């Protein structure tokens, strides 16, 4: 669910529901993607990559129950995934998310860490090939792959909406 203050053209909202590691706030999107590519390449098997995603899901803060609304649900996911987005005072998008499935919560955590603290136009221009590069695309079930695509699409839709707000459209 997108939340924009009433006077968004003059003041931007700030919310860090899902607190990211400090290094993620200082890295570019490409640097964050490279960090995850390097990390996942150290795992020789799909099982180890899967276990890492589960750990990411376990470590993710998630959302308050009051934020798990039907408006925040990502359409096209087999599991329930709730996604929120806000702009911080620097015009960067901050995502927060949760899921009822641990592996999906790990996947959305990965997306949140990569896309958060980026300007809307950076998110929109990103080809986002991370999932292929870390070897997840060939090992996810078709329904998980479709859900992942839906999550990325929704994040880009939020970025588009914020970009239009920033340009006064």
Key phrases:
single chain; 169 residues; 7 helices
Order of helices and strands: HHHEEHHHH
Q: From the 3D structure, determine the CATH topology.
A: Sufe protein. Chain: A
Secondary structure tally: strands: 2
Second CATH tier, the architecture: Alpha-Beta Complex
Helix content: 40-55%
* Strand arrangement across the biggest beta sheet: 1-2
Class per helix and strand makeup = mainly alpha
Tally of individual helices: 7
Q: Radius of gyration in whole Å, from Cα? A: 15 Å
Largest sheet descriptor? 2 strands, antiparallel
Question: What is the straight-line distance between the termini?
Answer: 19 Å
Whole-number count of domains: 1
Share in β-strands: 5-15%
Gross geometry: globular
CATH C-level label: Alpha Beta
What does this structure look like?
The protein is mainly alpha-helical. The chain has a single domain, classed as Sufe protein. Chain: A (Alpha-Beta Complex). Helix 3 crosses helix 4. It is globular.
Task: Give a summary of the structure in a few sentences.
By secondary structure, the chain is mostly helical. Helices cover 48% and strands 8% of the residues.
Topology, pairings included?
Elements: H1 22-26, H2 29-41, H3 46-59, E1 81-87, E2 93-99, H4 102-115, H5 120-125, H6 130-133, H7 142-166
Antiparallel strand pairs: 1-2
